Amino acid sequence: MMKKQNNKSIVIGVIGLALLVLLAAWWLARGNPAGNNLAGVGDLGNTASSTQLASVKVGDQFPGSVVFISDVQLPNGGWVVIKKDNSGQPGNIVGAGYFGQTVKVGEVAVSNTIEGEQYFAVLYDDNGDSRFTLGGDRPILGSDSQPIMTNFTITRNLPEVKG
User: Is the pLDDT of residue 32 over 50?
Assistant: First the structure.
């Protein structure tokens, strides 16, 4: 009798673990529910290997204090810096988050974002102090010698994603 109970508990545990793994895989694979804003991709000019590419993808977001990063490629690690739009160009910084070289998705804490406003996610190198400093950390430049970045909008009207 005890053996049947233990086997049943093991089977339920294995099924629960499998469901958890499937849920995590679905969440990672679903990508960006609001779109696929992919920043320019470029060589990391100040690295030993010029074949390493950096990129960032951020979709439109709900208003709030977090920006979800759908995909980031920072082969040497670095910062995703969120900046408020200033006449079509990145303006004041509202948040920054460090992403290690193996981290591909995540979130950046920001001061509250506002419905209808535009923001930019800009990639920066870390100068080695593990803190974001505007003067010390430099933007990562793409093949066009411009900072690698993407823009997104704050909106409550995000499309529904199925599957």
Answer: no
